Amino acid sequence: MKKTTLIAAMALAGLAGTAQAVELSYSGYIRAGTGINLRGGTQVCFGLAGADTKWRLGNECDYVIEPNFVAKLASYEGSDWYVHVMPSVYHGWGPAGTNEPDTLTTRFGQIYAYGNKISGLANGKVWAGRRFYNRLQLGINDQFLENNDGNGAGIEEMDFGMAKVSVAFMMDPNNSANDNRFALPIRATGIKTLPNGELSIYVTPSAQLKSENQVTNVEPAKQPKGIALGLYQTLNGTLGGNWILGFKHDKTGEVKNTRFVAQYGTTIGAATGLDVIGEYRVNDAPNDGGNKWFSLGARTDTHLSGPFRFLFEAGHDQVKPDAGDTRNMTKVTAALAASAGKEPGSRPTVRLFVTHAVWNDAARLTLSGRTQEVFGDKKAGTSIGIQAETWW
Questions:
Q1: pLDDT band at 103 (very low <50, low <70, confident <90, very high)
Q2: Phi/psi at 345 (nearest 5 deg)?
Q3: Whole-angstrom Cα distance, residue 257 to residue 247?
Q4: For 357, which of 147, 216, 315, 365 is 20 to 30 Å away at the CA?
């Protein structure tokens, strides 16, 4: 996050107002690249049907641009007041003429105002607008164990000593006026359970809000209520690294998910970073519509010399449907990168990669989209590409 101070001359309808100092912070994220597949044609990405994530190194077929601008507008009684704006673009590669880069549409991923360090709110924050909210991420998979992005308002990070508590109301105003859903995410973080670790608790009920349509006189169909509970324990310095151990259970109507996850990160010697993720998730749905998913993988990131690094990632996924044959996919990626720094994860970075995936016949029968177009009759595939990525 970088900061600068601007002197904004306030004027309206040709009348100059009083100049004021505005502290502007800016940050962001981008990734973009291109590649080929070795059967002939554009790079395609490999993911197993029914898995919640895919292993992402050398396996991202898209562009992302997310610049953030945060302006500090005022201070009052010890609190600071801001506005946060993030125009963003996401572009998934697609057929020519349907989703080309020159037709990218910018959207407001975030646009909200907030005040922090408010003494009457236990030194917490009040906010309202559209924002990324309650994001709890597993790094190398870019998986969000918790995510309540969207429109809403709330009170955040109220410090009660034993925990910091946050409560929000989230609902999409773009949905039907007489048939919508809301979520009430509640979290408590920073609960000291061990000398080297903390517990976070996330509880998110959701339900329908509806009324009869006064034009059609039709009552919207009833939707089931939902509830989610997530428990996440950190352990720092255990077995030479840092851990996140998680459990989550969610239920909407008759559909239930139960998830166990472990993430471990450490350094090996002075040059290599290691990240490992293991996950097991059970989906229970009516009429044999559920499945069980197991995933295990790791990434190493090693400094070679100067700006050069070598990265290697391997991941295996298995999906066992309630009805049908078990699907398997294993993906490996090797990458040579030039990066601005010696530390693992240094950015900006430009990576030249080779990605190879193998899968069984049950997985082959569930391939879709561009992967099916290229590899539909095969049980293995390879892509070569180059990608830039940075955050600031």
A1: low
A2: 80, 10
A3: 11
A4: 147
Classify residue 50 by burial, with Cβ atoms within 10 Å: 0-12, 13-18, 19+.
buried
Report whether 125 contacts 157 (CB < 8 A). Answer: yes
Predicted confidence (pLDDT) at residue 255 exceeds the cutoff of 60: yes
d(CA 292, CA 305): 43
**C-alpha count within 13 angstroms, C-beta hemisphere, residue 186:** 9
Residue 220 to residue 239: CA distance in whole angstroms: 54
**What span, in angstroms and rounded, lies between the C-alpha atoms of 120 and 75?**
15
Question: Can you give the length of the chain in residues?
Answer: 392
Both tokens of residue 114?
């907030």
What would the 3-class secondary structure string for 147-202 be?
CCCEEEEEEEEEECCCCEEEEEEECCCCCCCCEEEEECCEEEEEEEEECCEEEEEE
Which two structure tokens, joined as six digits, stand for 180?
Answer: 């919508």
Nearest to 331 by CA among 30, 60, 36: 60
Which amino acid would we find at residue 55? W
The answer to whether residue 376 scores a pLDDT higher than 70 is yes
Contact 62, 369 (CB under 8 A): no
Q: What band does 18 get if pLDDT is binned at 50, 70 and 90?
A: very low
- In which band, very low, low, confident or very high, does the pLDDT at 8 lie, cut at 50, 70 and 90? very low
The rounded distance, in Å, linking the Cα atoms of 68 and 84 is: 7
Mark residue 78 as left, alpha or beta (left: phi above 0; alpha: psi -120 to 50; beta: remaining).
left
Cross-strand partners of 94: none
**Rounded-to-integer distance, Cα 364 and Cα 323, Å:** 17
* Per-residue tokens: 230: 């997530």
List Cβ neighbours of 342 (8 Å cut-off, separation of 6 or more): 271, 303
| SS3 of residue 293 by DSSP | strand
- Identify the pLDDT of residue 348: 98
* Residue 19, phi then psi, degrees to nearest 5: -70, 145
Please compute the mean of the pLDDT values over residues 22-46 and round it to a whole number: 96
Q: How far is 341 from 349, CA to CA, in rounded Å?
A: 9
Query: How much of the chain is helix, strand and coil, in % rounded to 5?
Result: 5, 65, 30
> Is the separation of the CB atoms in 187 and 202 below 8 Å?
yes
Give CA–CA dist 153/114, Å, rounded. Answer: 10
130-165 pLDDT per residue, tens: 999 999 999 899 999 999 999 999 999 999 999 999
